[in-house]
Structures are given as structure tokens and as C-alpha cells.
Amino acid sequence: MVSVDRIPDVKGSPGGLRRDVGLIGLMWASVGSIIGSGWLYGAEKAVVVAGPAAIVSWVIGAVAIVLLALVHAELGGMFPVAGGTARYPHYAFGGLAGMSFGWFSWLQAATVAPIEVEAMIGYAGHWSWAHGFQHTDGTLTASGFVVALLLMAVFVAVNFLGVRVLAHTNSAATWWKIAVPLVAIFVIAAGNFHPANFTSEGFAPFGAKGVLSAISSSGIIFALLGFEQAIQLAGESRDPQRDLPRATLGSVAIGAVVYVLLQVVFIAALPHSAFAGGWAKLHFEGISGPWAGLATLVGLGWLSVVLYVDAVISPGGTGLIYTTATSRVSFGLARNGYAPKVFARTDKRGVPWFGLIVSFVTGVVCFLPFPSWQELVGFITSASVLMYAGAPLAYGVFADRLPHRERPYRLPGGKVVAPLSFVVANLIVYWAGWETLWRLGVAILIGYVLLGAYAWYAVSAGLPDAPRLDWKAARWLPVYLLGLGLISWQGGFGGQGHLGLWWDILVIAVFSLAIYYWAKASASRTEDIERSIEEVTVVEAPAH
Predict the structure, then answer these.
(1) Contact partners, residue 339, CB within 8 Å, separation at least 6
(2) CA separation for the pair 510, 507 (Å, rounded)
(3) Among 58-62, 342-346, 481-485, where is mean pLDDT lowest?
(4) According to the model, what pLDDT value does residue 211 have?
(5) Please, which pLDDT band fits residue 4 given cuts at 50, 70 and 90?
(6) What is the distance between the alpha carbons of residues 206 and 208, in angstroms, rounded to a whole number?
(7) Which of 23, 52, 277, 523 has the lowest tally of Cβ within 10 angstroms?
(8) Cα–Cα nearest to 111, from 311, 329, 314
């Protein structure tokens, strides 16, 4: 079957990725990404924005991610290729759309690892020896910059040891990352559960807008992101058709349950004095490390020590796997002809070495005096969800043009779920706010300049794999990006406020559906889709 990106295991072979990862390795790659620094901050940030109704925000966020994960589960089974999220739009809409969504994918992956490093350094500030690593505004000092570079270097070094070592390393870290939040949930709740906390200052003091804002701006979606890591490693899966759907959906289920329980217990365990002035003024000693501070507050000093240690391990595990993802996405971009072929070269262990080096350099750039972890959450959320939005669009095209292609997992009601998930994705992007989206727009423009310059060079030099920028199949794309930005500018989430609450949601829904069906109608022809699949695929059954 031609959908298998089986790249030879021969050591030193050009473009060779080794198929060493099983179901647990795939699932743990995703779970390890989902449970990162988000659990350390998410509950506290969400309750400040939404009050106890933050529980509703988490449920909405989980449902949204499940919808997107369901679409990805079917596509991952159909096309088990490395860097899959960057390739589905390429198959469906040709070069321009593929290049665009590939850049969205790389952008979000490349920025997560350095931000997780900053989270590690921030929490390490609890210890006296790390006090000099950050300025008061959260940016790194000279010594903090050196420590950040060393941590990024560790991420890259582990990745250079090969995907088998990575899977084992990440699996060990993920067991810890799951165990610590669960211990915190049950130990803190056992003696500190106050049901009155959910209503004493109002369940939803900031109304529906607070509930919706919390989904994007407080780190809820950011915390739940990461299921796509199994998809990105599809080219290295031993049995991708069977394992990818299970790993994708299983990781989302685990993450959603853990995060909802964390939010419930965080609210219930607080003493009333911490939020007596209203949830927007929540404060207690040690709030800069919310869960560790709460453990100390309720007399569980031993647990606070564990949590401060976990505040290094959890973000570290997430940073490790996103370093992997960055190199695999750039590998996919190169295989599709959007980036120089050096990104697709692998060493004797099957590691795309140049992509790892670039991910390290990107981390160096991100460690310059940029905004703190909390301020970048909305940016990464928007970039990630914009990347995810390409999958529902591609799903609709494949359902129409490739109806008989083998699907190891077939999404029930996919023709309804796919457009619905596209609407939900655009709502999440919109709720991040205009201040976030205009910055994302600048980053997108930078990507077009970089990738566009390479495309021009490849075409001018007559390279055999020069990308074909299919403008006709992607004519909806500029309207989509500009339209989403215009609605955000006019909306009530940091914009001009000309679109009231609920009306803005209606506008986003109608706009999204119009783009969805326009994209389906404009997509590449069946023969062009099949040719695109063939061009980036090596036909060979996986070895076991």
C-alpha cells in the first residue's frame, strides 16, 4: 500500500528513518507533551479568568481537542508519514497550502521547547542557587541564558542518540509526569476539599466571556496540546495503521481527565482567604508556583518539594519531545520540497541531524528578551490550533476524492465532525485575542518570506523537487487568514468591540463553514492528490 512512508532502515541511507516505536512509545510521546508546564500553571490561571466555571472551560477545551484528535486519528492511519500534520494539506491542496500549514506546524513545535526551558528555570527560582537566572520581568539574565542553552543542548543530545533512546527516555519521564499530578490530586483533596468554594464568590463571576477567554488565554488549550506528537512520529512507528489512532485518542483521554481533576481539586482545596476579594484577586504565599505553594499552604511540605522537582521534570520531558517534533516537521517540509534537502538528511541512527541543529538555534533566539511563559501561551495556542485546522479541511477533501482508500480507523459521522472541528479550531484562535493574533500574523509573514525565497530559488535553479505552488487549489487560503484576522480585530476579545458576544461566535461559525466548503470545492484533483502522495512516499512494507 502506497500510503506507508517506509524509509529504508539501512544505516546511513539518505532520508532513512528507523521504525522503532510501538504503541506505548507513541502514546507516551503524546502524553508527555500534553502533561508539561501547563499542569503547573493552568488551574491557577484559568480560575483567575473564569472563576470556578473554569471547570466548564476545561471541558469545552477537552471536547474541542477531542474533535480535532478524531480527525487526526483517521488521517494518521491513512497516511502514517513523518511530520504528518505538515503533509495532509499538501496532499489535499498542493504546494501553497502545504507550505503554509507546514510553517504553522514548524512554528508551534519550534517555540514550545524553549518556553518549557523557561518554565523550568522559572520554577527553579524557588531555590536560592537559581535566584540570579531571571530578571524581575521573567527574562533571562546572562547566567540564566547559559543555563537555558545547556538545557536545550541536553534535549538535542538525547535526540541525537536516536528515536529508540528517545522513546525509552520519554517513557520513563512520562510515568513520573503522570504519577505526580495524580498524587497531588488525591493527597491534597483527601484532607482539603471545601465544596463551598465553588459558589461562595459566584460560580461564573465573569460570565460566558470569562469562560471562553480562559480556553485560549489562560493556558487550557496550550495544556491539552500535544496529541499530534504520535502523528509526527508516524514514519518511525512499527505498526502505524493500528497504533496511531489508539495513541492519539488515548493520550487525549488521559490528559483531559487529569486536567479536569486538577482544576476541581485546586478550587476546592484553597482556603477562603485566598480568594475572599474575588477570584480575579486570588493570592496566597507561593502563588508563583501555584501547586507547590498550595501544598505548602495546606501543610503538605513534603509534597511541595516533590512538586518543585516535578516543575523541572515535566517541562523538561515536554521540551524533549518537542525538540524531536521540530526536526520531524522540518524533515517533512524538506521531503515535500518546501525546505532545503539538508533537513531530510539523517545520520547513521536515522536522526534528521540538521533539523535538530536548527531547533537548537531557534531556542537560542527564543531565549532573547521576549515575553514570559504566560504571555506566550496565547501565541503558541493560536499557532498550534491554526496548524490543526488544516486536518479537517484535508479530511473533507479525502472523503470526497479518496473514498475507497484504506482507513484503519474510520471516524463515525466524519462529514459532520470535520466541519464542526474546523469551526471549533477557529473559535479557539479567535478567543486568544487580537493582541495575540496580530503577532501571529507577523510570524506567518516571516515564514512566507523564508519559504517563498527557497521556492523561488528551487524553481529558478530547476531543481527536480521544486515545489509546485498550486494557487488555484489554495485560493481560499489568503481569504481565510485575512478574514480571521479581520474578525478578531473587530471582535470583543482584545479588538474594537464592534462584534458583541455570541454575534462574534455566529460570524466565526458562518465564516468557517464558508471557507470549509470553498476549500473542498477548490481542492486538487484526485490524480494530483495521488501524485503528491506518491512523490513523498517510498513503497515498502514496514519491517518487524
Answers:
(1) 330, 333, 451, 454
(2) 5
(3) 342-346
(4) 94
(5) very low
(6) 7
(7) 277
(8) 329
pLDDT digits (tens, 9 = 90+) for 181-192: 999 999 999 989
Q: Across all residues in the chain, what is the average pLDDT?
A: 82
Give the integer Cα–Cα distance in Å for 308 and 289.
Answer: 8
Contact 348, 9 (CB under 8 A): no
Say whether 140 sits in a helix, a strand or coil.
strand
Count the residues in the chain.
Answer: 544
From CA 165, how far away is CA 114, in angstroms rounded?
A: 21
Mean pLDDT calculated for residue range 50-57: 95
Q: Is the pLDDT of residue 175 over 60?
A: yes
pTM: 0.80
> How far is 451 from 417, CA to CA, in rounded Å?
32
- Residue 214: all three cell numbers together: 480562559
CA distances from 179 to 38, 182, 248, 320, 453 (A): 15, 5, 20, 19, 47
Return the amino acid letter for 95: G
CA distance 388 to 421: 9
Sign of the torsion formed by the C-alpha atoms of 458, 450, 110 and 49 = negative
From the list 25, 59, 303, 295, the residue with the least C-alpha distance to 164 is 25
Q: Which amino acid is at 163?
A: V
Please name the residues in contact with 456: beta carbons below 8 A apart, sequence gap of 6 or more.
Answer: none
Helices (H), 88-128: 88-93, 95-124
Residue 13: Cβ within 10 Å count: 13
pLDDT tens digit sequence for 62-108: 989 888 888 988 887 788 765 566 678 889 998 888 888 888 888 88
501-520 burial: b if 16+ Cβ within 10 Å, else e: eeebbebbbebbeebbeebb
How many CB atoms sit inside 10 A of residue 475's CB? 15
Give 368's strand partners. none
Q: What is the pLDDT of residues 304-357, one digit of tens each?
A: 999 988 888 778 877 877 788 788 788 878 877 788 888 888 777 777 889 889
